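Section handout 9: paired folding examples.
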Amino acid sequence: MHKNMRYFHLFQKSKYGVGLRKGAVYNFLKVKYNFISAKISEKSTMYPVLVLQSTLRCNLSCPFCLVTNKHPQNWREYECTPDKYSKILNHKLSKKCIFSVISGGEPLLNEHIDELISITVKNKILPGMTTNGLLLEKKIETLLAAGLCDLQVSIYDNTKSRLEKILPLISPLIAMNCSYVLLKSKIEFSRHNNFEEILELISMVFNSGCALLKFNICVPFLEGAFYNDSETIFEGSAVYDKLIKACKAAFPQIRFDGYLSDKKILFGNKFTVYFPPPAGRGHNRRMCRLPWSSFIVDSNGNLGVCCNMLPNTEERYGNIFNRPELINEGHTLKVRKSLLNNDGPLPSQCIKCANLAGVYGSVL
C-alpha cells in the first residue's frame, strides 16, 4: 500500500476529519508541504504526530536500538499510565495532533495499552502503534476493540520465524505495515548467496497479507560516547544498488517504491516494498522534518527531538511540564535552524544520519 493510500484510509477512519481536533488536518498539511519555521508555535505549525514512549522495557535487545536507557532499575517511574497520558494529551503541545504513535520499548508490555488507545480515540486523535509483534496474537482483539487503527510491525532476524506464523493471523483484521532495518554487514554478506535471506523476507511479508514492507537504513547509533556508523549504508554503495535490482528481478509482480524506483507512485492499494535512499556523506541534503512533525515524549513529559535524540531522564531537550520553552530554545532550536540552512554547520547527531535524505519526513 502506498503511503498516500494509507493517509486516505486513516482520513476515512476519522470520518473525513470530523472526528479529529479542530485545525489538526490543516496543521498536518502545512507541515507535510513545508510551510514551517524554526520555531513550533500556533502562528507557524504545531506537532501533527505524537510519539509516546510508553515504556522503557522490551522483550528484545537489538544492538542498533536508539533507545539507550532500556530496562533501568526505576523503569516503573517511566511506565505510562492513563493519568499520565491524559495529562500529555491535554497539554497545549498536543493541541493539533492528528495521530498518536504508541511506542516503547515494546508497547505491548505496558499493562495499560488498551486504555491508552481508548483515551487517544476519546481525545479525537487517531491511535497507532509500533511493535515487534511478538505479543500481537494475544492482544489484537482488545487492541482493535479499544480503537487501534494503524499498526506498524518491526521485523528482526531473530523474530522472522515467529512472525511468519503470527502475521497471517493479524493481517485479515487490520492493515499492517512492516519494517526491517538493513545493516551494511547484512547486505554485504548476503550478496554471496544472491541476497537469499532478504528475498525470503519479502516473500514472507507478501504472503502474510501485509500492506507494506519498508526497509530502513540503519541510523548511526550511540556506542559509548561516539556515534557508530559502521552499519549505515551510504550513497555510492554498489551492493545496495545490486540488492534492489535483484529484488525487482525476483518479484516482478510486486510494486517497488523509493530509491531506484522506475516510476513515481502516487497512490494505490497494492502491496509495496519501499527502499529508502542511502545516507549522504555530505551535508547538502537537509530534508529531515522529524523535529517539526513528531512530538516525541515519554510518560513523564521528557521531550525528544527526533529518533536520534530521544527523551532522557536528564531533561536534556526539555520537559513539557517543567521546561516546555526548550522546544524553541537551545539544542532543539539549533537543530531546526541547521536543517533549514544548507550553508551552516550541522549538530553532531545529524551528521551522516540517513534521515537527512528525507527518508522519514514524518513517522507516518
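Moving on to protein 2 of 2.
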Amino acid sequence: MIEDREAEVRQMVFAGKLAAETADEAQARLTAFLEAAPARRAILDLTLLAIVDPIGVKAIINAARAVPYSQLAYVAPAAFVRRSLEQSGAREVGPIYLSRPHAIAAMAGSAHLQLREKTLAKFRLGNTITANDLGAIYAAARHDNPAPLLVQVLSNEANAQQRLAFAKSAKAWCELTHPRIVPGVEVIDDGDLIAFVGERPSGQTWGAWLGTHGGRVSVEEGLRWMSEMAAAIEHAHQRGVVHGELRPECFVFNDDLPRVARAPLFPPGNALPSAYRSPEQLRGEPPTPRSDQFSLGVLLYEAIIGTHPFTAELEELIIAQQLQGAPLSPRVFLPGIPDEIERFLLCILARDPADRFASIGDLLAAIASLTERRYHQSLISPSASLRGDI
C-alpha cells in the first residue's frame, strides 16, 4: 500500500492482492487515510492489483462506511477489478475511472460528482446511481413530493456543443408520450450545470425479469419484449430522438410489462456500457437509429440465448470482437433455434449498419412476420409450443 498525502486530492495505491488475508490491514489503513484526508475525499488506485475477492472489496466498503460523508473515487483499468467493485452493489462504490488523471480531474474540479445530498433547482439529490467523468445520475425527489425521480447531470466540463446536444435530446425526451417510455419531467439549466430529470418507477430490473424466466425467455416472449421496446424507440426516432445508450439498467418491468428510460434507473450490473454499444459508437461515431437497433439486438440475444453475443475474458477483447468480428452463432448455445430466428438476430447485430434493417419500422414488420409464421406452425404441430424451450 502506497500513500500520497501531498497531491491535490489524497491518493492511496493498493498493489498485489486484495483478499481475505490482506483485508483487515487494507480496511484499517484506508479508514485512517480517509479520516485524515481534506474534506474526507480521496482516490483509491487499484491499477496494480493482481487478485481481488469479495472479502477484499468488503474491506474497502467497510472503510468508507466507517468515515461518514467520505468521498472515494476508484481507479480500476482492469475489467475484473471493476466487475468485483460493481458486483458488490454498495453505494460506497462511487465513480470508477480508467486512469488516475481522470479521477484527479473529477475529484478536484467536477461539480457534477459532488451533488449527493444537495439541492439542484427544486430537487433534492440522494445516492449516486452511476457516475463517470462525463456525467452522473442521482436518485432524487422534489422537496414537496416524495415520488422517486432521477437526475442526470452532465459534466460541467462538457463543451458548448455537448451541452447543446444534451439539452436538445433531454427536452425532446420530455415530450415523448409512448406508454412504454418512462417519462421525462424537465430539463434544468442554471448556466453552470445542465441536467435531465425523469421519473424513476419501481419494478423489476432486467436481471430480475430474466431470473423469473429461468435466466432466459422463450423466443415468443423475447419477440414480444422486442416488439414493445422497438415500438417505443420508433416513437422516439420519429420525433428525432436517438437513445444511444440502451442497456439493461434502462429497463424496468411491472407485471412482465417493460418500459424504457432515457437514463439508467438502476446501478450498473456486471457488463460495462460498452458491451451494448454498436461498433460505430465504439469507433467514436455519433449514434444513429441503427445504433439503437444494434443495442436492442444485444439485449434480445441475451434474453433468448442466455448469454452476451460477444464473450471474452478481457473487456478489451470483447470490444475487439464487436469492432472486427461477428457475434457467436445462437445455435452454439441453443441448437434447436429456428433458422429464421437466428437470421433475424444476426441481421440486427450486423457490424455494418447498412446490413441491419433500414429502420425500426422494418424491424417491427419482420417481428410481426416471424410471430405470425410461428403461430401458424404451432397450429399445424401443437407440440411446437409457443412457450417451449425455443
